Amino acid sequence: MNPHSASGSETESFIPAPGATRGKPVGTGVAIRGTGAYTPEKVLTNDDITHLVDTTDEWIVTRTGIRERRIAAPDETAADMAVRAGARALEKAGLNPADIDLVIVATITPDMPFPSTACLVQDRLGMGPVCAFDVEAACSGFIYITEIATSMLQSGRFHNALVIGTEKLSSILDWNDRSTCVLFGDGAGAAVLSREENGNGDGGRGIIDTRLGADGSASNILYMPGGGCRIPATAASVTAGHHFLKMNGREVFKIAVRIMGQASQDILTDNNLGLGDAALIIPHQANSRIIEMLSERMKLPMDRFHMNLDRLGNTSAASVPLALDEAVEQGKIRPGDYVVLVAFGAGLTWGATLLRW
Ligand code: UT7
Fold this sequence. Notes:
Blueprint: E1 30-38, E2 42-45, H1 46-50, H2 57-64, E3 68-71, H3 78-93, E4 102-106, H4 117-124, E5 131-135, H5 141-154, E6 160-168, H6 178-181, E7 186-195, E8 206-214, E9 222-223, H7 235-239, E10 246-247, H8 249-269, E11 278-283, H9 288-298, H10 309-312, H11 319-329, E12 338-345, E13 349-356
Parallel strand pairs: 4-5, 4-6, 11-12
Antiparallel strand pairs: 1-7, 2-3, 6-7, 8-13, 9-10, 12-13
Helix pairs in contact: 3-4, 8-9
The chain binds oxa(dethia)-CoA (UT7).
């Protein structure tokens, strides 16, 4: 599929579930029961970065909207942050670790290539020997794992899932590359998803629908070449900078605007909702100009888009759940509101989730 025209849903149509009232979105019977967040203490401002590379606060703010980001301590890992965010989500959901029977972590900066960060989190949170695995879909990771968890819960074999996006991007940035090091930050966001005992099939709360897509032909515009089997770690690969994130920012920007716009519109219209029915859009926090263009394209005012990238930068898989938790904490989402989560990232991957709070 060509990313320049892709929506991931072009061939799909809305088909009401048996018995559902046409025109009302049909739920999946799965809802977010609690959210949680964790960001490291250390704040790295734009001014701090001017001491590392040839840049200015003015350039970074004008081109990205980012003013500062959080940086994990040297010994603080993606699993450490995931445990903090996950514990908070459990607390807010009113559940104990023993209630969780599925743990999925989305990350491109796992503690180690293996075992999965989800296994480390499962152990550290004191859960039983339940299913735990990682998913790598970069900045779309949280949308991907929310869909995977929703489907597994719907199967009836699982009851409560803990899904976490966590990243220590500071560990894969080239701090001599001004085109990337100014953009990213560290953190973790989490959500507990549960089967709704009474179901939410007819306009009730919960996850309504998800669109996922990917286009591997654009894998060369955002990637990290080293560390896998193609370029294993050697002294030469480290010296060549193969273990740093590489990006063609301008290309990613163009595709991001198109894909996030299309995915957000499709998920609403495919469910017989108008764009204005979305009380809040939680977009991936990559660049304020991308979000402004999304707002223009959807003809929705900027106050319908939650943003925290000015304070956290781009935290990849943690970006959407961090923003979701913040919006919930700030009371920006009320019961009955339709909310759209939308993201794009390396792969390229993209996804959108429609839910009713
Ligand atoms: O989660 C997905 C991950 N990625 C993204 O979402 C990134 C999407 N892309 C972007 O956000 C933007 O493309 C960037 C913020 C990365 C770059 O903004 P841009 O407006 O596309 O700038 P550009 O790459 O076209 O560069 C314009 C100029 C260049 O100088 P010349 O060639 O015009 O002289 C760059 O060298 O800005 C220069 N530049 C900088 N100058 C000061 C690039 N980075 C910096 C910097 N400070 N940090």
